Amino acid sequence: MPMPYYVSPEQMMQDKAEYAKKGIAKGRSIIAIEYVNGILLVAENPSASLYKISEIYDSIAFAGAGKYSEFENLRKAGIRHADLKGFMYSREDVTARSLANGYSQSLGTIFSQEQKPLEVEILVVQVGHNGHANEMYRISFDGSIIDERTFAVIGGKSEAVQALLKEKGLTQPPELREALSLCIASLEQIGSQKLSLESLEVAVLDRTREGRRFRRLSPADTKPLLSI
Amino acid sequence: MKLPFLPNHDDPSFFDFLTQHHPALTPAGRSGFLSPQAGTEPMRGAGPMTVPHATTVLAIKYQQGVVIAGDRRATEGFQIAERRIEKVFKIDDYSAMAIAGAAGPCIEMAKLFQVELEHYEKIEGVQLSCEGKANKLGQMVKANLPMVFQGLVVMPLYVGYDVKRAEGRIFKYDLAGGRYEESDYHAIGSGGKDARNTMREHFLRGLAEPDALKLALLALYNAADDDVGTGGPDLVRGIYPTAKIVNERGITDVPEQQIRSIYDGLIATRRSKEN
């Protein structure tokens, strides 16, 4: 019987992490940023039908970077988790925190137990209302979870975008138009090319809305916002 | 891909997910009712079970859409169980459902149907077609069949605005989940027959919105006149039937003030006939 060859756990984890990071680095960045009335999500996405940003529940949104099929699966599982919880208890009991924890546990387990880790990085954001603060969670391929303030960035070159946004030193949440142009400017600067509105996927969680607060903004919606 | 902490499952139906993974949460899934041994034994000693029942809801098509309305009474045998029960539910942006039958399971089904459609929309990124929504509700009624034998009947009346055809549509159901489309108007519940008689007399194709609303409220009034299970306008407590309008612009609740003034007119006419 041939002997299985030995790889140290450190080496294995390191290889997996490298593999996952490589996959994610190929993708483009997605930004979530707080604005006066909620949270704005902007992704560079040339596809008009395959979304990277999506509604999960009344005031919760999801964004995924990396391998589409993998974060799409995570997105669906999240919707199922949220809908089940809301149906079983009450709509207000569905929280981004519990969802982010579920994702973190799942990603962590898959990272340590499966042959191939998921090549994804995801964002779970919840807009706060009635005086509650917004919540933004960034979850990595290995299940590590970070809660962010003001803004959060995932995907390839996310660190560079983050550094750019940090430079702006936002102290107050900006207006929607201001937040949007800030996001576009940051993405353009990192990619060093002009971005058309058609190649952007834009959505908001708007706390002034009743019930379902997620809304996708089409190029026709974003154009007037940027035309001043 | 199976996610360890967020159980995965691939089709876009929330109802199927619940039936498979959490059967106790479906309206038909109250354990004890489903299995014959557990279901019949304790019931025998307990005597006939009485649960609140909701009655008389109706829908009328008009030029641009559909009016859907219902009274507010729930009865438990010969007792009034509830005077302010809501029997007309907004389901999504373009559809509403009214219920007759055992109040608890009915409301539960409406809530589940709501989640079902929202779930589908979120997973698939598009809304179900009007026909698709109506069929889905039929499957849910069918799944409730075991409960019917326990006396927990759920009878929905479903109306939707079909965006593709640009018209309002009315669907009725039978206990086995059969789905039938009505071309003009329909009413269900214990006073349904009385309401249908009124509508048959006065219905015209292409009614204007205010006329359709008036007819709906008149039909409910006549049903309440002849059927003990149906509540008329309660002038002392100020409880009036509720109505919603489903059209191209979505769903709007008819304001109580408007319903009240229509009833004031109606009652004045009736009174003048009596004197």
Please supply descriptive tags for the structure shown above:
heterodimer; A: 228 residues; alpha+beta; 5-stranded antiparallel β-sheet; 6 helices; B: 275 residues; 8-stranded antiparallel β-sheet; 8 helices; 13 strands; 39% helix
Explain the overall architecture.
The complex is a heterodimer of chains A (228) and B (275). By secondary structure, chain A is an alpha+beta fold. Helix content of chain A is 40%, strand content 25%. Chain A has 6 helices and 10 strands. In chain A, the strands form 2 sheets. Chain A has a 5-stranded antiparallel beta sheet with strand order 8-1-2-9-10. In chain A, a hairpin with a 5-residue loop joins strand 6 and strand 7. Chain A is globular, with a radius of gyration of 18 Å. The mean pLDDT of chain A is 93. With 275 residues, chain B is an alpha+beta fold. Chain B has helices at residues 14-21, 36-46, 103-124, 130-143, 145-148, 192-202, 209-226, 256-274; strands at residues 53-54, 57-61, 65-70, 74-76, 79-82, 88-92, 95-102, 154-162, 167-173, 179-182, 185-188, 242-247, 250-253. In chain B, the strands form 2 sheets. In chain B, strands 1, 4, 5, 6, 7, 8, 9 and 10 form an 8-stranded antiparallel beta sheet that branches. Chain B has a 5-stranded antiparallel beta sheet with strand order 11-2-3-12-13, covered by helices on one side. In chain B, a hairpin with a 4-residue loop joins strand 8 and strand 9 (167-173). In chain B, helix 6 (192-202) crosses helix 7 (209-226). The radius of gyration of chain B is 20 Å and the shape is globular. Classes of the chains: A alpha+beta (228), B alpha+beta (275). Chains A and B meet through strand 3, helix 2 and helix 3 of A and helix 1 and helix 3 of B.
